[in-house]
Amino acid sequence: MTDFSNQNGDSEKFLEIFFNYEKQIYYEAKYVLRDEQLAEDVVQEVCYRMLKYFHRIEESTEYERKAYIKKITRSAVTDILRQNLKFNLLPEDISLENFINFQSDNSTENIVIFNEDMKALKKLSKKYSSILILRLIYHLTFKEIAGIEKITASAARKRFERGKRMAQNKLKILR
C-alpha cells in the first residue's frame, strides 16, 4: 500500500485522479444499485482500492487508468450485490438489465443475445433460473448459492447443470 505520510506530491496527485473519476464512479454504481447509500459505499471502496494500488494507476496512461477504475468499480458493485443478496434473489429496485449492460460493452449484438438468453431463462422454472442467474450473472460460488437457496452445494451444482442444459435446449428453439 502506498504511504502518503511524507509524500505531499503523491497525495495531491492521488486526490486529483480520484476527484476526476468520483462522480463517474458514483453514477455508474447508482445506475446499477438504485440506492444512493450503496453507491456511496462503492465510491468509498473504489477509493480504497485506488489508494492500495496507486502505483499502478499513477504509472498508467489515461486510457489504462480509466479502464482500471471502471474494472474496480464493477468489482465493487458486484461485491455490494453479493453482500445484499442474502434474502432476495433480485431486489425490486435493482434492474438485472442495468447490471448486465453495465458489465458488458453494450454492443447491439450482445444486447440481442442477452435478450434471447433472458427469454430462455424466463421459460425455466424458478428452481433452475435462480441458480443460473446467481452463478452466471452474480458469479457466486455453489457454496454461496446453497446458502441463499437453503440447499446443499452439490444440489446447487446439479441444478445449475440441469438448468444450463434446459436453457441451451430452449435457446435452440428460440434461435
The CATH topology of the largest domain = Rna Polymerase Sigma Factor, Chain: A
- What shape does the CA trace take? elongated
Report the span from N to C terminus: 50 Å
Average pLDDT: 75
H/E element sequence: HHHHHHHHH
Ranges with pLDDT <50 over ≥5 residues? 87-113
CATH-level-2 architecture of the largest domain? Orthogonal Bundle
- The helical percent reads over 70%
The class by helix and strand makeup works out as: mainly alpha
Which percent band covers the strand fraction?
under 5%
- Tell me the Rg in angstroms: 19 Å
- Tally of helical segments: 9
**What is the number of beta strands?**
0
The domain tally reads 2
Task: Report what the structure shows.
- The chain is an all-alpha fold.
- The chain has 2 domains: 8-83, Rna Polymerase Sigma Factor, Chain: A; 104-174, Arc Repressor Mutant, subunit A (Orthogonal Bundle), CATH 1.10.10.
- It contains 9 helices and no strands.
- Helix 1 (8-33) packs across helix 4 (62-83), helix 2 packs across helix 4 (62-83) and helix 7 crosses helix 9 (153-174).
- It is elongated and about 55 Å long.
